[in-house]
Design brief:
This protein is α/β, with parallel strands linked by helices. Helices cover 33% and strands 26% of the residues.
């Protein structure tokens, strides 16, 4: 009998035990979030300033529901990153199954947003309420990323709660490993949505470059 575990209940310890998943500190593993990013034009910066203002206004009147975060913060970022247009394709809430390596245990869940290019996974996005720490969602996001049917290709992930943003990169084969970016937050001075959008654009550019090589 198959035993199913909700992805939201998976822990890092489980992923380490079942897949030998390890976090790497090698900067060469996840250079995409550190590399020189595409510059933003003034209109993009102005739009992101408005997005931040909209979120701050939303924060004054809790609860900040997950769907509100998607509408106010995530949707504009995906638009500006170009993920609504070809060659990219978005799926919302696709089902995933991640098989464990013993006793017929599987992890099941639904990815909030999946960005693909030619059926290859580019970006797994997990959206949470603004009062939910993004670090708590790391195991869930990694479970989704490890379920990538193209396990020999890296998967990128983003955990978003409107206020905080964390990027992940994972590879299942030949060695299961992952790394994360620094934590971006709208609490910090300035507008860190600029950097978030630049990284999203960089990820899109990186996958296109990889396929053309």
């Amino acid at each position: 009998m198959v035993r199913a575990i909700p992805a939201s209940q998976v822990t890092l310890r489980t992923l380490k035990q079942k897949f030998a998943l390890q976090q790497t500190s090698d900067p060469e593993f996840f250079p995409e979030w550190l590399e020189t990013h595409p510059n933003l034009i003034e209109l993009e910066q102005q739009y992101l300033d408005r997005v931040k203002d909209n979120f701050l206004a939303l924060r004054e009147d809790p609860p900040r529901l997950e769907n509100s975060i998607k509408m106010v913060v995530l949707a504009p970022l995906l638009d500006l990153a170009g993920f609504y247009r070809k060659p990219f394709r978005l799926e919302t809430e696709p089902s995933i199954t991640l098989e464990m390596e013993d006793e017929g245990t599987v992890v099941r869940g639904r990815i909030d947003v999946l960005v693909q290019k030619n059926r290859l996974w580019l970006l797994v996005i997990e959206s949470k309420r603004s009062d939910f720490s993004v670090t708590r969602a790391v195991p869930q996001a990694l479970a989704y990323m490890l379920s990538n049917p193209h396990g020999n290709r890296p998967s990128f992930g983003a955990i978003v709660n409107g206020n905080e943003f964390l990027f992940l990169k994972a590879l299942r084969q030949p060695v299961a490993q992952y790394a994360n970016s620094r934590l971006f937050s709208l609490v910090n001075p300035g507008n860190e949505l600029y950097a978030v959008l630049q990284i999203l654009k960089q990820l899109g550019r990186a996958v296109v470059t990889t396929e053309n090589n």
